[in-house]
Input
Amino acid sequence: MEAAAGWRCRPGGRLDMSHGFVRHIRRNQIARDAYERAVRQARGRARGRLTPTPPRPRRPDQQVYRPRRPGGPGGDASPGPPPADTRGPRLFCLEYEGDDGHVTAVIVHQGDSAEEVTRRVCARSPLEPALRQALCQRVQDELSKRRGTG
Output
């Protein structure tokens, strides 16, 4: 078989790789391989750190809110009962709003008595004797409900 006119053949039946189309395909393959290699290396570098560093503040002069701790510096060291460990688990949080709009919150634990809770509320916002007695009765009802004795 003789080579057709206009066909460029090399001896041995191989393709002519100097053709422009084939050169473009080969250039694209090389570029793709280089890109994939770079992505693989970048991914490997990103995974290289096993222990993440703590995040640094982006704005060191930005103020951050830190709530006060009772009894700590800047907190109100009220002469109250000992920590919750000795009084049992928490049952509920009693919030009392006075006539002036000030809200008094008291955590009620399982070992607390109604009189003790009323005394803690009255220490923060004074109540009249009638209101104090009504609050004591209401706390007693809530305690008996949550303890399962009511």
